[in-house]
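User: As part of a screening pipeline, I want to sanity-check one entry by hand. Below is the sequence and the SMILES for copper (II) ion. Please return the complex as C-alpha cells so I can compare it with the automated output.
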Amino acid sequence: MSDSDGKESLNYPLLLATIVIIAIMVGAATMKLLGGDPETKVAKVKITKEQLADFTAHIDEMVAGYTVRVDEKGWPVVHPPAGSDVYILARAYNFGRFTLELEKGKSYQLKLTSNEIRHGIAVRELKLKETINLGEIRSVAFRPEKAGTFDMVCSEFCGYGHESMVGRLIVTE
Ligand SMILES: [Cu+2]
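Assistant: Here is the complex for your manual check:
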C-alpha cells in the first residue's frame, strides 16, 4: 500500500530543481549565441601562401589608391572609403608601414592576417581586440565610435619586439 503510494506521488522539489537547472542552461546557451557586439562579428577562413600574396597585393593597392598625405614619420596616411575592406598584415613588429585613417561612425570590414607567428590587434579606446593567427584571414566588422589618434598595439606576446609593435589609427569626425 505505502509502496504504490510512493510511486504515484511526484517528487516536486526535485522536479522543480530540474526545471530551474534546464531553464538556466537554455538561458546561458541563448545568451552565448546572441551575445557580443553585433558590430564585431568575426569570420575566419584559412589562407594559403598564394592567398597571402594576394593579401599583400590588396594592401599595396589600398596604400597606392587611398594615400591622402604623408605624416611626420614619413609614413603614408591611408584613408580607405567608408564601407570598404581594410587590409592589415601583422608581422614582427609592425602592422605595415602606413597610418590608417578611418571615419567616425562608419563601418569597415577589417581583414587581418599574420605572415609568421600569432599576433593580435588592439585599440583600447575603440574596443577593438582581435587575435591574428597564422594561416587565417580574420574578417571583423569595425565601426570606430570615437574620433582621435590612437595607438594600435599587438595584444599577443610575440617576441622581443612585441612592446614596439605599435601602429597608429586616426579617426576623423
Ligand atoms: Cu605581435
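Points to compare against the pipeline: The chain has three helices and eleven strands. Residues 124 and 152 are 8 Å apart (CA to CA).
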